[in-house]
Structure formats: structure tokens, C-alpha cells
Amino acid sequence: MNDTTLTRNPALPEFWLRKDPQTAFAEMRREKAVHWHDEPPSAWFPEGGRGFWSVVRYEDVVRVSRDQDTFTSEHGTEIVDMTPEMVHIFGGMLNMSGDAHAHHRAIVNRVLTPRTVEALGGTIREHARRCIDRVAARGGCDFMRDMVGDFPAQVICELLGVPVADRARLVELTATALSAYGTAEAYDAMLEIIAYAEGLVARAREQVSDSASFLRRLLSAQVDGEHMSDHEIAVFFALLATAGIETTATSIGQGMYALSRHPDQRRRWQGDFQRLAPRAVEELVRWVTPVRYFRRTATRDTEIAGQPIAQGDKVVLWYASANRDERVFARAEDLDFFRPEEQHLGFGGGGPHFCLGAVLARKEITVFFEELFARLPDIEVSGEPEPLHSNFVNGLASLPVRYTPA
Ligand code: HEM
Q1: Closest residue CA from atom 34 of ligand 1
Q2: Is ligand 1 within 6 A of the CB of residue 111?
């Protein structure tokens, strides 16, 4: 690897620890639409992988996202290459394409609907209150560890009907699967989640209860007369558990940090919470961009903005860059709840894989901030945030906050 590919390679977790990753992206966007990057060594490829193209501009991320025929998800959406079996275990529908994906998505769309999320509203609020109340009297805490804590995990567990006694283990496994992504340890964690889910699905089949209702609806949902198998439901369960926890925690944690850096926006939101909430939540997701990238693979020789791309090449869509593209978002570094409503790419570039959990994520973020501002209206960041060591999720390990005890 030469110097430039090292200092400007967003696949390296170190790239994200530097002070100005967005300055590097701004330079890349100005120079050209697509950049070649060498691939850092990983647990599977100690010598480094085969390298990939980075797509950094908004319009190209959208174009590639919407063209699954040319840029498929079925060879994996992580940068690192995996065997077909691992691609399936780690991603399920996320790593499918074409008719197979459309069919699967049509089935789960019947079950994970806005009504399902609406019905979960009371539970989401209860968990948000519990998370805030457990440290409200302290006057200060670590926002990530003590307050956001297990909030999104509990919500997903409620949705999936995971018994309370099993939740801690499941959360531990999803954390291993995500933090050690692409390693044997992460793979084993995914296999354990799937085996656990298969047991839960088998029990849901026998049992009519409120907690089993989501899995029971998945069991009975069908499109063109076809059901999902128990194994498919278990893989979907694992995808929801891994896709829905860290992303939402990141939106809330980095969202709190964003609000602390833009006090005028925060004041206006707190002053008119309900009216501004839909715009504020979208703008927080744009500013934070919890998921920094997903990858595609070219199915044929093609081009992106004039750059030839060979069949089989890996193409990485940097939402983190596209969401700061100044051609689309004026003063993109500013958090601005009143900017023109331009579709951000935090939930993906549109097309068939657009985030299936977006409605749930928006609801969780809205309810959490609503409860937070109601209980601890003067909460403020009191120290430096500590980022997670990842090239994939823009998460925080820690964020010190203080407030008047309640
Ligand atoms: C703010 C929080 C979230 C962010 C930023 C986010 C981001 C994304 C992105 C960027 C994609 C597109 C993947 C691609 O194009 O390859 C995606 C897909 C997906 N997300 Fe989310 N997500 C969030 C929350 C959730 C939640 C809460 C759930 C589950 C309840 C969820 C479940 C999924 C699933 C199942 C897919 C795959 C959809 C498909 O392949 O058709 N996400 N998400």
C-alpha cells in the first residue's frame, strides 16, 4: 500500500480515528467520483484482500444502489470477502439479490409493517423511561453505557418475543458478531444466534401468545403460496438482532453529541418537539450516518461516472461521504433541522435494500429524545466522546453527560 491509500483509506479503522475524516472525503469527492483502495489485512486475509472501489458522491451512491442487476449484494455487503455460506449466515436477505430478495422482502414486509411498529409504541416508551430513570438521580453518567445502554436491544427482543432470561446472552452474542465482524468468533456467534432462533421459532409454532406473535406471523406469511422455512426465519431473526441494535444506539448517542455541538437547533427542537421531530430525526440520521458503508459486486464490466469497473470488482458505497456531499447538502457539516428536505442516504441509497427497520428506528429515536428532554431537560455533554474502533458503524463507546438530578 502506498502512502495515499493508507492515509485516505476509509476501510482502515484508523482513518476514522483521525481528526478530519470528513476533510479527506471532501477532497476525494472533489477529485473524482470513484477511488481505488487497497484492502487492509483481516482475520481471513492476513496479507490483505483484493481491494475495492470507493464511491464517494451522492448521485453515484444512489445510482449504484438502485441497479442490483449490475451491482449485486449477493456476494456480500461487507468489504471483506467471505464464503457463500458465511455471506448467507451473516446477512440473509441483506446479501440476496434479484427475485430471491424480492420474494423474501415481500414476505417480511407483510409482518414488519408500520402497524407492527405502532403497536410496539408503548413498550418502546417504557424501555426508554426505564433506561433514563435508572440514572436520573445521579446528576451525571456515561450516556452510552448507563443511559442508552440496552434500550434498542430490549426493543428488538420485545419485537422478536425473546424471553427476558435469554436477553443478556443474545445481546452479548450480537455484540460479538458485530465487533469481531469477519472473524471465526463472529461467525460462531451468528451460528449460535441462529440455532437459538430456530428453537424459538419451533416453540412459537406450538404456542399462541402475545410474545410469539411476530414469529407466528412470519411463519404464516406467504407470497405466491410460499412460506419462509424455520431456518430462513432464524437467519432473518439474526439479521434483525444485528441490524437493529448498534445502529439505533449510535443514532441516539451521536445524535446527543450532534445536539451538543448545535445548541441553537437543540433549543428549537426542545421548544417545539412534536412538530419538529420528523425533520429532526431525519437530519440526525444524516449528520450521524450510523452505517458508514455497504458494498456491492459488479456482475459485468461496467463504469461509474466514467471509471471502468471490471466484472467481479468490489464497489463500496460510502454513505458517510454521500451524506456530506455539498452538491446536495449546503453547509453539510451543520446540523440543520430547517434545511430543504433532500433524501439523505443514512438508510441506504434507495432501491430494493432500503432499510427495512427505518420506521422502527425513527420511532425509537423520537421516543427516546422525547422522554429524555421531558425528564432531564438540561442534560449536556460534559467530556470528550470515545469512538468505537470500527470502519463500519459510527458508534460511541462512551459519552460523558451531566444534568440536574431528577
Ligand atoms: C438508525 C438506524 C439504522 C440505520 C442507519 C440503518 C441503515 C441501513 C442501511 C444503510 C441499509 C441498506 C443496506 C444496503 O443497501 O445494502 C439497511 C438495511 C436493513 N436494515 Fe437498517 N438501519 C437502521 C435500523 C434498523 C433497524 C432498527 C432494523 C430492524 C428492526 C433494521 C433492519 C434492516 C434490514 C433487515 C435491512 C436489509 C433490508 C434488505 O436487504 O432488503 N435496520 N439499514
Answers
A1: 356
A2: no
> What's the half-sphere exposure (Cβ side, CA atoms, 13 Å) at 100?
12
User: What is the tens place of the pLDDT at every residue in 124-170?
Assistant: 999 999 999 999 999 999 999 999 999 999 999 999 999 999 999 99
CA-based end-to-end distance of the chain = 54
**Do the strands 380-381 and 396-398 form a parallel or antiparallel pair, or are they unpaired?**
unpaired
Q: Which residues of 88-120 are buried (b: 16+ CB within 10 A; e: fewer)?
A: bbbbbbbbbbeeebeebbebbeebbeeebbeeb
Is-contact 204 189, C-beta < 8 A?
Answer: no
pLDDT per position as a tens digit, 20-69: 899 999 999 999 999 999 998 877 788 889 999 999 999 999 999 999 99
249 Cα–ligand 1 center, Å: 13
> What pLDDT score does 3 carry?
43
Please give the grid coordinates belonging to residue 183.
Answer: 472473524
- The number of the ligand 1 atom at minimal distance from the alpha carbon of 94 is 40
CATH number among 3.30.70.20, 3.40.50.450, 1.10.10.10, 1.10.630.10, domain 3-402:
1.10.630.10
> Which atom of ligand 1 is nearest to 251's Cα?
1
Q: Which atom of ligand 1 is nearest to the CA of 236?
A: 35
User: What backbone phi and psi angles, to 5 degrees, belong to 370?
Assistant: -60, -50
Cβ-count burial 237-267 (b if 16+ within 10 Å, e if not): bbbbbbbbbbbbbbbbbbbbbbbbebeebbe
Report yes or no on whether pTM surpasses 0.90: yes
**Please, are residues 12 and 39 in contact by the beta-carbon 8 Å criterion?**
no
Residue of the nearest CA to atom 21 in ligand 1? 355
Q: Side by side, which strands form the sheet with 52-55?
A: 34-37, 52-55, 314-318, 293-298, 71-72
User: Is the CB of residue 248 below 6 angstroms from any atom belonging to ligand 1?
Assistant: yes
